[in-house]
Design goal:
- The chain contains 11 helices and 13 strands.
- By secondary structure, it is α/β, with parallel strands linked by helices.
- Strands 3-2-1-4-5-6-11 form a 7-stranded parallel sheet, with helices on both faces. A two-stranded parallel ribbon has the order 7-10. Strands 8-13 form a two-stranded parallel ribbon.
- The longest helix is centred in the N-terminal third of the chain and has 22 residues, at 96-117.
- Bound molecules: uridine-diphosphate-N-acetylglucosamine.
- Uridine-diphosphate-N-acetylglucosamine binds at residues 87, 89, 127, 129, 153, 182, 201-203, 206, 218-221, 232, 234, 275, 298, 301-302.
Length: 344
């Protein structure tokens, strides 16, 4: 029998790519998603790639009774990958309660129900945002956690603390916390990808939409940072590489590869790329010019951050493989597919 994994937020951007990799690896997947930031058609994309449609339950994880019913009717769920969360940094500043409810109460509900449901492990989606501006680069998992700059960032820190306290209290499950750097790109089939709601807040969807002519020009937020070309530096990682790390993490939890009950891994490439470098790589790979202007810095942006992925490479046995060029090309192919479908 195939091992059953519950993927919350499984129709979202990173969630959908992870469902594909889980199914390709032989897991049976149940998705719970409230479709607040994704569409049901994502299931068609997953099915086209894997020839298998995951079980889908449209539900809000704040509904604890509903969640309990899911665990009773699927008594063989062995692991959870918890993606479901609100993720717009700017929005979180003016809707903090929404962010704390969606990002914290949902985790409490899952952790509360896991022991009785016999779920052995949970993989949690965290972010490099917990490091703030690190004092030492590349940043390792031991770097100090800095005060969060937004309710979104704070919710990730609180989530990590809740998991840590729950594990140390002796509850009968294990956890792996994954701190993502900047996931970009789309599945090579262009059947699934990132589908931002309205004007994209993140860099790569804004670039691809500008290249497509949907947006007039890209605003580069600041060229006066203390970096070689003055623009901010990030660690951009292909979403399929990131998705594969989740399969490795859930394997590790369920096969008891480690004695540790809680482990934390950075998921990045280890390479820092500036906004202007990313833009010129996009133009080189696609042959499409992207009009841009330099504007003021964006409030809350960190100057530079990239991962030391050695812990994930050596202990988890996972390494990011795709180059930033091929990753940007996959994002562009996805944007072109959206145009063919008349979506954007
Ligand atoms: C942010 C969060 C991260 C979160 C992610 C999800 C912080 C520090 N990071 O990542 O935790 O998981 O969003 O949404 O809060 N840029 C432009 N023009 C644009 C858009 C972006 O120049 O139109 C620049 C930004 O200034 C930044 C880089 O591009 O330097 C990447 O920005 P973005 O894609 O929004 O990701 P982060 O801010 O790194």
């Amino acid at each position: 029998m195939k091992t059953k994994i519950l993927v919350t937020g499984g129709t979202g951007y990173i969630g959908s790519h992870t469902v594909v990799e889980l199914q390709n690896a032989g897991y049976e997947v149940i998705i719970i998603d409230n479709l607040s930031n994704s569409t049901i058609e994502v299931l068609d994309g997953i099915e086209k790639i894997t020839n298998k449609r995951p079980i889908f339950i449209q539900m809000d994880l704040n509904d604890k009774v509903g969640l309990q019913q899911v665990f009773s009717s699927h008594a063989d769920i062995k692991g959870i990958i918890h993606f479901a969360a609100s993720k717009a940094v700017g929005e979180s500043v003016y809707k903090p309660l929404l962010y704390y409810r969606n990002n914290i109460v949902t985790l409490l509900n899952l952790l509360d129900l896991m022991p009785e449901a016999g779920v052995e492990g949970i993989v949690f989606s965290s972010s490099c945002t917990v490091y703030g501006q690190p004092d030492i680069l590349p940043v390792t998992e031991d770097a100090p956690i800095k005060p969060a700059l937004s309710p979104y960032g704070n919710s990730k820190q609180i989530n990590e603390e809740i998991i840590r306290d729950t594990i140390y209290a002796g509850l009968p499950f294990k956890s792996i916390i994954l701190r993502y750097f900047n996931p970009i790109g789309a599945h090579p089939s262009a059947e699934i990808g990132e589908l931002p709601n309205g004007v994209p807040q993140n860099l790569v969807p804004f670039i691809t939409q500008t290249a497509m002519g949907i947006r007039q020009e890209l605003s580069v937020f600041g060229d006066d940072y203390n970096t070689p070309d003055g623009s901010c530096i990030r660690d951009y990682i292909h979403v399929v590489d990131l998705a594969k790390a989740h399969v490795t993490a859930i394997d590790r939890l369920l096969t008891n590869k480690s004695e540790e009950r809680l482990e934390i891994f950075n998921l990045g490439t280890g390479i820092g790329v500036s906004v202007l470098e990313l833009l010129s790589t996009f133009e080189k790979e696609t042959g499409v010019k992207v009009p841009y202007k330099i504007v003021e810095r964006r409030e809350g942006d960190i100057e530079q951050v990239w991962a030391d992925p050695k812990h994930a490479n050596e202990v988890l046995g996972w390494t990011a493989k795709e180059s930033v060029g091929s990753t940007l090309l996959s994002a562009w192919n996805w944007q072109k597919r959206l145009r063919e479908r008349g979506i954007q």
